[in-house]
Amino acid sequence: MTESTADVFKTESFTLQNGAILPILEVAYETYGSAANAKENTILLLHGYTSSPHAGGGGDSNPGWWENLIGPGCAIDTNRYFVITPNMLGSAYGTTGPGSVNPATGKPYGPDFPEITTRDMIEVHKLLLDHFGAGELAAVVGYSYGGYLTFQWGVTYPTRMRALVPVATGITGRGDESTIRELEKQFEAAAGWNGGQYYDDGKGVGHALIEFRSNVLRNYGVDTELRDRGLDEAAVEVQLHSQAAKWAAEFDANSLIALRRCATKYDAKPEATRMAAPLLYILSTTDTLFRPELGEPTVEHIRKVAGIDATYYQLESPYGHRAPSVDWAKWAKALEHFLNTQASLTAQASE
Question: Domains of the chain (ranges plus CATH)?
Fold first, then answer.
């Protein structure tokens, strides 16, 4: 089991891109490896839309979403790197978001939480990195929504990292206002929604969250994974419901809406010319959210406009959006080689 440290970074008066101010900003995070490596060998690891900062191993009772890729001697080697995994702004795992208490009212922000951008999210990360004294990053690595933020880091602070690894993601966001409205309708129909202020009586919303999560797990290929473990259809349904119920007890419907709205407005492609760090882009052959057809055109565009080394790696896997976690062994060596190569090139350049 990989040793981790979980904590919350706190600051005040954080100004968003739109000028709104969060009087209190809290950022939940986990770290792996020694902080002695923070200055020059930090890897910023960024999670997905509905996930948490718990990326590393926690044993069978609390597995991390990339537990097999993080640890001593792993692709993300904690003997070498200090790994920081922050919970993204607007999420529901300890970082300030719609479920946080608004100091002005003493109640959760709910739907009144100010609109946020991917740029806001990485500015929050930057504060946390500065707190740890992390200078040039060994890499920014992001999975799914975290991949959006990886690209955003690459175009906003192009010289801050030695490498970029966006995984199961895109350089532009998915969806539009209609997809946000569709999501809102799912919760508006739930008993106790109360215009989004459901926190005192949210059982009906809890049921809606379970249904939402069950569908997400299917879209991510979790049902296929369970069948391949030998579970019959009835057992698959039980397991999907169990996983969805556990998640629903922890997450916030308003966070889903806020993060989805942010994602629809994200687009790093026009600024790709600013990218300076070598990039390894990973997509799965069966991912229906970020299809493999995105791979080569994306890296070709980046090579053309930024003139950097951009490589596409296609992961052959039946497990859809979850493939990088489930079939980690199929691409771990490619990740390790890429990180080692960038480290070696940096060392040679400094000699």
Answer: 4-175+267-350 (3.40.50.1820), 177-259 (1.10.1740)
